[in-house]
Amino acid sequence: MRSTTSYLFSSDHLTNPNTFIKILLISFLSLSLFFGVKHFSSDTNYPKQLSRPFQLATNTTAVSPPPPPPAPPPLSSLGLEPDNVVERTGIVDENGAMTDNFVIGDYDSSLLENVANESSVERGGESDQNWGKIEQFRVCDESKREYIPCLDNVDVISRLNSSEKGENYERHCPAKDEGLDCLVPNPKGYKNHIPWPKSRDEVWYDNVPHTRLVEDKGGQNWISRNKDKFIFPGGGTQFIHGANQYLDQIHKMVPDVDFGQRVRVALDVGCGVASFGAFLLDRNVTSLSIAPKDVHENQIQFALERGVPAMVAVFATHRLLYPSQAFDLVHCSRCRINWTRDDGILLLEVNRMLRGGGYFVWAAQPVYKHENVLQEQWKEMENLTGRICWELIAKEGYIAIWRKPQNNTCYLARNPGVKPPFCDANDDPDNVWYIPLKACITWLPESGYGANVTTWPGRLHHPPDRLQSIKMDAFLSRNDIYKAESKYWKEITFSYVNVFRWKTLNVRNVMDMRARYGGFAAALHDHGVDCWVMNVVPVSDTNTLPVIYDRGLIGVVHDWCEPFDTYPRTYDILNAAGLFSKEQKRCDVSTIMLEMNRILRPNGHVYIRDVNSIIYKLEEIAKAMGWITHVFDNGEGPNAGAKLLTCEKRL
């Protein structure tokens, strides 16, 4: 026995390779058995998601899952309390408190369509839809050089039953299959426009090569030609000694006019070359200059080339495209309009657009000449203005100034049967798209909305009262939405101004093609960009134009499925945020892009922010028009659902 035991533990036996392997195997099995028994005997609980029940792949009975772990003790029993306990859910109201008192709006089926469109985006946002190759657009023939499609539709205009009331100067747009399908050519020798403010006094002859106004109005100090430039001395038919002297006279007659404070937005009717509006800009007043495309057809084109806010418009048979109570002052100096015709229907249109407490300035021969015919016209004007409760507050020389009432008190005191009548209660004075003129007095809101705006510049950012009367889903959050839009555009335009160097781009005439509340225009003012902005509210959007005017800005209602009423080569920058995804269901986006090319100046820029599903199609169209394009990610990165397309129309 001793010899056997000695053998087992002898060094020779332990160093034998076979024996050593056997010992290692026995040790490994012993350790495995020990830890296995310990594991299955443990009362440790594992997370539920890691201990799911399973089923054998046979017909035998499934193994039952282990019983659920006991519920943890309440925090209070451990002496612990949560920092924040959610008591209820809902939305945050204007006071910052949670509320469940809200109304869910109607279901919008287009939301799912937009999500479906965006979900088809590939390779960093490019739509996988096959748009096909877009051929290069041809250049139009020379006859389209000054083409305004809805005002130059000769075929339709020639077939009008009557043009007695100016119907031939109103909009008559081409049929869809007859729209613009080419690139409007530049005049021979066209140059990059002269920068503002120098352009107020001179422009290149080759950019607007028309001498008719020089021949007709040169003696009235409107315009003259000096070699390769047109010169604008600043005069007009009724202010031959200059617009500044004329403006001083108006202010002296009525100090309450207070240019740049109470009077911020004006309308100049029959503006000539817009010297009235050009010199008002020095007094912090934005004056929108309007005139028809008549025998002096290029007067608006001269105004725009100078860098003065202007568009083609006419007092004829339809409402002008501006909201009620839009203008603090309306000016007519020898504007050749018979204000008293047809029961005063044209002056009643001025009354609709004139702000409560606003001023109407009339400089015309009936004011000061004593010829029988002219005196009869003055008496008719006095009679009509009295019946619509305008107060004649000053008459001096060739200028007469009336003030519109701030409320309905005078209207209610009129004798029964006095004409013109009041407009129907259901008439919307802000509904203007192809709406016929109405010979009636527009009621002022009992709330005073529109008439009680703050003075400039405070009104630019103060939420106006009429924000509450806009037809939109939100109610309590309107002011927050308004402020959020302003903040959004202030941040975006800060990037535009600095990254894209807008202050070095010779920017003067700017258009926001989907303006909403005017936040884009307000931001450019805050950033010190010396420009003016035409704020366009599409007919497919909520009509926010009254809010824009209450801010001290200008704008117009428009349908982008139709051409805009301005000359070719008008704007330096076109801004379009969310426009094409909105309008693509209503009209061909290439039609809108061709219209943008028509109204964009050579060396002008376009900025389009929209969903990925349409950005790349727009880029292809832009390239087919000869524009230089770049696509940028927005602040959310390359996988965001929207991008920025920038375009340049090089000369």
3D structure, described in words:
Its main location: Golgi. This is Methyltransferase. It is found in: Golgi apparatus membrane; Membrane. InterPro entries: Put_SAM_MeTrfase (IPR004159), SAM-dependent_MTases_sf (IPR029063). With about 650 residues, the chain is α/β, with parallel strands linked by helices. Among the domains are: about 140-185 and about 455-650, 3-Layer(aba) Sandwich (Rossmann fold); about 200-410, 3-Layer(aba) Sandwich (Rossmann fold), CATH 3.40.50. It has 19 helices and 21 strands. A hairpin with a 3-residue loop joins strand 3 and strand 4. Residues about 1-15, about 35-90 and about 100-130 have low confidence and may be disordered.
Largest sheet: 7 strands, mixed
**CATH fold type of the domain at 142-186 and 455-649:** Rossmann fold
How much helix, percentage-wise, in residues?
25-40%
| CATH architecture term of the domain at 142-186 and 455-649 | 3-Layer(aba) Sandwich
Compute the gyration radius: what is it?
37 Å
> What is the CATH class of the domain at 142-186 and 455-649?
Alpha Beta
Family: Belongs to the methyltransferase superfamily.
Pfam families: Methyltransf_29
Transmembrane segments: 20-37
Keywords: Glycoprotein, Membrane, Methyltransferase, Signal-anchor, Transferase, Transmembrane, Transmembrane helix
